[in-house]
Amino acid sequence: MSADRVRTERTGRFGSGGGSFGAAVGAIAATTCGLLGVFLTSALAPLLRDDGIVTPAGLGIATAVFFGVSAVIAPLGGRLADRFGSLRVIRVALMVAAAALLAVATVVQGWQGLAVALGCAGATNGAIQPSTNRYVSRLVSPQRQGLAFGVKQAAIPMAILLGGLAVPAAAYVSGWRSIYYVGVACALGVALTLRAPSSGGHGSTPPATTAAATPEHTANPLPRAALIVLASGWGLASAGANALGAFFVLGAVHAGFLTVTAGLLAVLGSLSSISARIGMGMLADKRSGTNLGVVAAMSAVGAVSVALLATGREWSFLFAAVIGYGIGWGWAGLFNYAIVRTSPNRPGSTTGITQAGAGTGACLGPLAFGAMLGHTGYPTAWMTAGLTLLLASGIILTGRRMLPARP
């Protein structure tokens, strides 16, 4: 990567003008657009089902394709970002995301076409995730990176929130295809407007003050075995959490909620998760250590809330919306922050590997959940998702013990 591009991506800081605030906003906007395809589809699934576009099993397959392709592309996306710069990779990916959303709105007639379109969208997500991790790590000071990664990872519940808000609009106003047109406009708008944040008139931050040069970032490199174990833990957690995200609205409708009410419950869950991710990021900036113990504890709490959905009671869906989304799925920013702190010199490549684990779990979780619905029904599927989150908690703790001691 050229020296000019390195300097361009090192100019922003929290508390040093508007540069790194722009970095956080740009990262969450780009990541949200990369996820819109899958979470709009999940939220609008009852309407797509009514039009014969998708069945529960078809939704599971299409969602699995999205995250499966994302897992395959993520390591490559991280390497490309480290080599060519984050912004270039993000812009190209957003244009492909816009094309995938347009395809759903105009040509998709069944779950097979939907799976192809979501596969293309998944490729963009795989490229955007590690690229925005690198973008944040290069533009935000170490003292604010916990908050920055929390804001960035709030993109996932933000995409779910937008999907939930789209349900009443699609049901009563404009139809579901128009929602995808809005998504196209958003992705193109972010691609065209995303820029390297300026230093706000305070000048460029010298390279010597970047995250990689600060004392707290001089720990030994992350061992590959620990990286694989942690990626596996994130994969299992993503399997349970993304099954919740993909089937929450359909499951709530099955439990007796109106479609619009189920969509609003998803909005509540999204707000809870956004608050948790940002709040835990702020707290992480005040703590030492990797925060992986906190990640494991949050995953365990989420396991209980998801398993309670097996009761089929309406109160359990309200509980899962607040606790399952908020605590059980509110730690992704902490996880990325931990990986970047431990391996700051290659944030794109390293988080590309962990993102591959997350994408693999997010692929297999909804696929298995959708298959289980056809054989065992919702109670067993929800219970299995909860147990998966609990197992993930234990594996993350194992990976934490494999990390080298910090100076």
Automatic annotation (TrEMBL):
**Alphabetic keyword roster:** Membrane, Transmembrane, Transmembrane helix
Q: How does it sit in the membrane?
A: Multi-pass membrane protein
Q: Which GO terms describe its molecular function?
A: transmembrane transporter activity
Segments passing through the bilayer: 21-45, 57-77, 89-108, 154-173, 225-250, 256-280, 292-311, 317-340, 352-374, 380-399
Looking up InterPro entries in the UniProt record yields:
MFS, MFS-Transporter, MFS_dom, MFS_trans_sf
Enumerate the subcellular locations listed in this protein's record, separating them with semicolons: Cell membrane
- Keyword Phosphoprotein among record annotations: no
Q: Name one GO cellular component term.
A: plasma membrane
A Pfam family (short name) is MFS_1
Q: Where is the Major facilitator superfamily (MFS) profile domain?
A: 22-403
* Main subcellular localisation: membrane
* The keyword DNA damage is annotated on this UniProt entry: no
State the protein's name. Putative MFS family arabinose efflux permease
